[in-house]
Amino acid sequence: MARVFVITGPSGVGKGTLIRRLRSALPELRLSVSATTRAPREGEEHGRDYWFLDEDAFARQVRDGEFVEHAEYAGRRYGTLRSELDRHLADGAPVVLEIEVQGAQQVRGTMPEAVQVFVAPPSFDALRERLERRGTDDPDVIRRRLDVSLGELRQQEQFDHLIVNDDLDAATARLVGIVRDEIGRPSS
After folding, report:
1. Average pLDDT by consecutive 10-residue portion of the chain (188 residues)?
2. Handedness of CA 110, 81, 5, 39 (dihedral sign)
């Protein structure tokens, strides 16, 4: 069975950047594109960055059991479509999921064989600065994201691996090492 890698952590911690670098180092990895009810940010494309769904479509797909996991985060809904994950697994390719902590916990229950990696900031202040610096959210959204991140950070010990993203090159090297080791390990 192909490996599934769950990469999670608070908003703004650098999950997306780390995953881009991971996939550059290990091009055989596939990325499962998540669905969301939030509006696209500048430069984001439907089907490439996210599957952008309205609330009704998202709710219908939840009701119909089309998600492997789904969660609400800072007023928006996010989830992994079963069809998206199954498409990659059918090819026998290792798959990366970039998901919220709530969703990672759901995956732990339904796919205990998935390798779970929590990415943490060096400090809460560093996380706040990153969210403000990226300039994609208004102050109220940033506040909500930071409120949620406090609870998420308390859960980091529940994950198989912890990476503190205080140095991007070092964090990338650690993530690449974890994934290479797990790909080489026999499935249980």
Report:
1. 88 93 96 93 90 97 95 86 92 92 90 95 92 84 89 94 97 97 77
2. negative
